[in-house]
């Protein structure tokens, strides 16, 4: 997923901001931590030039749709979001209408 985001970016562009909303605490944290580790592993395998093209920010949503929506809205209003990766269809369904209305890319996994 990360490589797809990087492929069309030029080095002189500002970094592409990807937010990753995962359950990093609470009863579903094992899924979130495993997903975060996988994304970090993928990032570690990118060339230095590719790494400069993106920033990835992890946020803990505890797999709660209302919390995910609040995080998405906050990051979007701060200009810190070009795309979002979420875990679970419930989170994806909650964020989808907002991300679509704002023209932000949404990737739901899990």
Structure description:
With 110 residues, the chain is α/β, with parallel strands linked by helices. The chain contains 5 helices and 4 strands; from the N terminus they run H-E-H-H-E-H-E-H-E. The protein has a 4-stranded parallel beta sheet, sandwiched between helices. Helix 5 (89-102) links the parallel strand 3 and strand 4. It starts with a helix and ends with a strand.
Number of helices: 5
In N-to-C order, the SSE pattern is HEHHEHEHE
Shape: globular
Distance between the termini: 13 Å
Classification by helices and strands: alpha/beta
Q: Name the strands of the widest sheet in spatial order.
A: 2-1-3-4
DSSP strand tally: 4
Radius of gyration (Å): 13 Å
The unreliable regions are: none
Q: Would you tell me the overall average pLDDT? A: 91
What percentage of the residues does DSSP assign to strands (E)? 15-25%
Helix content: 40-55%
Main sheet summary: 4 strands, parallel
């Amino acid at each position: 997923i990360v490589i797809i985001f990087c492929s069309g970016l030029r080095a002189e562009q500002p970094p592409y901001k990807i937010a990753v909303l995962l359950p990093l605490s609470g009863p579903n944290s094992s899924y979130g931590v495993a997903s975060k580790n996988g994304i970090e592993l993928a990032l570690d395998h990118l060339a230095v030039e590719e790494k400069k093209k993106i920033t990835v920010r992890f946020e803990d949503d505890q797999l709660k749709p209302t919390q995910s929506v609040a995080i998405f809205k906050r990051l979007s209003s701060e200009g810190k979001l070009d795309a979002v990766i979420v875990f679970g269809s419930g989170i994806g369904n909650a964020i989808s209408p907002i991300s679509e209305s704002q023209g932000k890319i949404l990737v739901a996994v899990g």
